[in-house]
Amino acid sequence: MKSALRALYVNFSFFVKNEWNEYCEGERIVRELTSNDDEKPSPDKLKRLVYLIGAEPENYQLTYMMIMKRVTDFRYLRHMEKVSFLIFKKKKRYQPSEHVYVQKKKIKGLIVVEYILKYGDHRFVRSCKRDVRHFKKLRGFTYELYNKDFGGGGV
Fold first, then answer.
1. Domain boundaries, the chain
2. To the nearest 10°, the Cα dihedral for 134, 140, 143, 145?
3. Residues 71 and 65: beta-carbon distance below 8 Å
């Protein structure tokens, strides 16, 4: 019951913020895709976002600005995806029953950017090239699982 009330509150607050700030549909979808829940971005919403970026040139800039805001807003980790990993220490593996987990962050916004780069409009590619300095700040990001680095650190 408590989780259902929490979900209702979150959905209501999302609706109020969207209406109050008068976000366009593309901005609303970006906010949903990069929200602070534990779910990965929905493929259907990603497809809808790609369609909107190509079909609504008047809202393209607003949508792009929202994507960049969510990707580069390092002060608020709410736009990040939480991923849990086991900690290793002195070559001794802790058991999951000990609840020794570390929260690593993976930017959900990058999933959105990657999808749009693959399937979206060429304007988005040009815009990302223009703002490449923002992506260069993310070079230090590492995705570690069981002491193995899966990219990012030495790019």
1. 2-78+107-140
2. -170
3. no
- When pLDDT is cut at 50, 70 and 90, the band that residue 154 belongs to is very low
Count H helices, E strands: the chain? 7, 6
More confident residue, 115 or 134: 115
- 38: tokens are 């534990």
Instruction: State the CATH class of domain 2-78+107-140.
Output: mainly alpha
> Bigger pLDDT: 86 or 33?
33
CB–CB of 100/60 below 8 Å?
Answer: no
Q: Which residues contact 4 (CB under 8 A, 6 or more apart)?
A: none
Q: What is the reported pLDDT for 140?
A: 60
Q: pTM (2 decimals)?
A: 0.66
Q: Note whether 72 and 133 are within 8 A (CB).
A: no
On the 0-12 / 13-18 / 19+ scale of CB atoms within 10 A, 92 is exposed
CA distances from 40 to 77, 98, 104 (A): 15, 27, 15
pLDDT of residue 103: 30
Q: Which of 78, 88, 93 is nearest to 144 (CA)?
A: 88
